[in-house]
What does this fold into?
Amino acid sequence: MSDNKQAVVEIDRSAYDFKDVENEKDFYRLKEGLNEETVLKVSEEKNDPEWMREFRLKCLKLYNEMDMPDWGPSVEGLDMDKISSYVRHKEDMKGSWEDVPEDIKNTFERLGIPQAERESLAGVGAQYDSELVYHNVKDEVAAQGVIYTDIESALRTEYADMIKSHFMKLLTPTDHKMMALHGAVWSGGSFVYVPKGVKVDIPLQSYFRLNAAGAGQFEHTLIIVDEGADLHFIEGCSAPKYNVANLHSGCVELYVGKNARLRYSTIENWSKNMYNLNSKRAIVEENGIMEWVSGSFGSHTSYLYPMTILKGDHSKMEFTGITFAGKGQNLDTGAKVVHQGVGTTSVINSKSISKDGGIGTYRSSVVIQSSAKKAKASVSCDSLMLDSISRADTIPGMDIRTDDADVGHEAKIGRISDEAVFYLMSRGLSEEDAKAMIVSGFANPVSKELPLEYAVEMNNLIKLEMGGH
Amino acid sequence: MNKNLDMRVNVLPALTYNFLHVNDSKIKEDSVGIDFLATPDAENVPEGVTVDRGVSYKEAGKLFEDAKERINVDLGIPGDPNGDTSGRDKAQAIRTGMGIDIENLMLESGALTDVFTVNEGVKTQKPIIIRYNLADGAGSLTSQIIHAKKDSEVTVIMDYTSERNASGFHGISTRLLAEEGAKINLVKTQTLGDGFIHFDDIGGACFNKGAINIVSLELGAKKSWNGCYINLCEEETQFVSNQGYLVRDSHTMDINYVADQRGKKTDVLMNVKGVLMDKAVKTYRGTLDFKSGSSGSVGDEQEDTLLLSPDVVNRSMPLILCQEEDVEGRHGATIGQLGEDLLFYINSRGIDEKEAKRLMVRAKLDSVARLIPDPEIAEKVQYYISTIV
It folds into this structure.
């Protein structure tokens, strides 16, 4: 156990919170606020095709017409007039770590990204503020026909039509105000295409770093896994903490083909001044499988509910998620699923932990449409309260429109059992260590779904939060 | 008197996605005829129970106004983190499941309240029975208060019925106060005709070791709303509810049950069993709300819904809100048709699928009907169920 104790001491928030001071002359920063001028400026920076420029302007109009939702955590502290929608380094994206500007390279080195790429990844994309600064995919993966690049570059290749026909078609600007905002000022992100029958054995990863204060990050991730293909995609996010609000409003659109499988794993550790108003949606064809693994640790306020549309017959979805809400955090997370196809299956397993005044809300919806005969849905959500100044809410919704469905739901809220703590203390652990061990066990169903390196990172984050740093 | 109804009721205690259409419900009806404003005579009123008949809704409500601070003790918690979902209902001295629009309707319409006061230490043996036999075209809007004083116990049955093909309007508000060690058993059975619009709104509070038990069977009416908000404001208070419903044809049913657990060691059990047939639409909201200070409390909510047609719509919102570490909250839901294993077993006993379904529907609803403490009404309800299925 002494090793574990050592680990608690060794982990330091500075692993994520460190600030690399951005030298103004090296960075281009759009002035704060959102209007037609700023949107056109982003479009000009991106060298958008005409259709994209028009699309951005339509989205801005929608944004101005829409209201924020009347449910969920307050976003009063978020003032778009104080957010810069676009910040980039003046250097272009590189294909080699050596060529990445020194200051940015140092950031990613400290986050361990190049090392992870060497050891366990098939490809890496690294976004710093509004732009990708590095993108690379291993030769043997590229040789299989796998495309992993930034969307802006792909828009100027033979994949332009594919992007145009999929971009914001699954998550549309009319879905909600943040999607309209995203459509207006999106920048960066990744495009992945896995051709028919190709199975990518080791994961691809995108890492998003928002280093600038008072800025927004609006990356767009579009992944198409064609018929019979298989991919594991990992997304990581972090930012240093500032005293002003930052905004993350990314958009993730995932297309899972017939008999294909996509696993999308996220370890989110944004700083605690971040408004994480992110949207993710997948559509799954016949016999396809969508798997979500999600760990939410950071952010001041989160709205995050990955949604899956089980369109094809016998398609499946599994969501495994954990949320740790600490001091000053209001994390509203969960999952949504729509069953359309016959014999579709969904399994949602969610864990949430609230501590030091944190608010953790599990929110979900399971919709079974009349066409989804023989659909099965199972939802399980457990919440752990670590003190009486915190809050844990579960707000699950179910809408069932056929008798030929089987839906089960269970939820539990409780505390760490005194007996378990007493038992561990009788084996020589301090109360703090005993509780940390129980919380790690509580999170185990999620960590075991992650590759080893990421499971270790997640456990470290739990220990860090338990230590109250 | 004719009234145009336009009310927002059954507000979910924590709002969620609007596309689910569960955040509230609307009662919007034009020119509803209301001709009865007084509760029918109660039967079996024993010694030790006084009935003040025909008190104005406002005057009767003073009981709760006087105890408002004790019921809605200020917990010193800043704003609701999931939005102020039913802030307007906080103006009610005793909150009800359907909310303040029902209270306003009662006040505006001049509905009269019968106040049943059970004297200290009195434990009634036979249930008090209030029967509503409504004729075709009837419009009824009535109110009751059941006030059980210290260490008393009372059982009240309210039975609403009419001919199967009758139409009309039936609205009812029942408010409950169980003082120290007192227990209120409230049983409501509804077998109104297929053209009826019906709502049943309940609000209650329990003081130290007080308890409220509710049994509710909703079997008829074209459109039906049920609300219940029980405030367990002091220590070792208890709320148990057993609900059963049958919704069929193109009928709709909308439910909002809330257990507001404020005192230490409160205990809540909410069981809901229902059957949906034909083109029925049902929305169920059930909330366990563990407020700060409710340490040692437990809450359990179980929902079991049987779907018997491909055209039904079932919406369920089982919420657990928690601002206290030392509590245990659980929710379980099972929604679907009869299990294949069960059907196979019943078939192997020589019973066909149609008969098997009939048996299971009866078994599900009879398990609630058996809790009715009056054999005659229990038998009537069970017969009604058998004729439907």
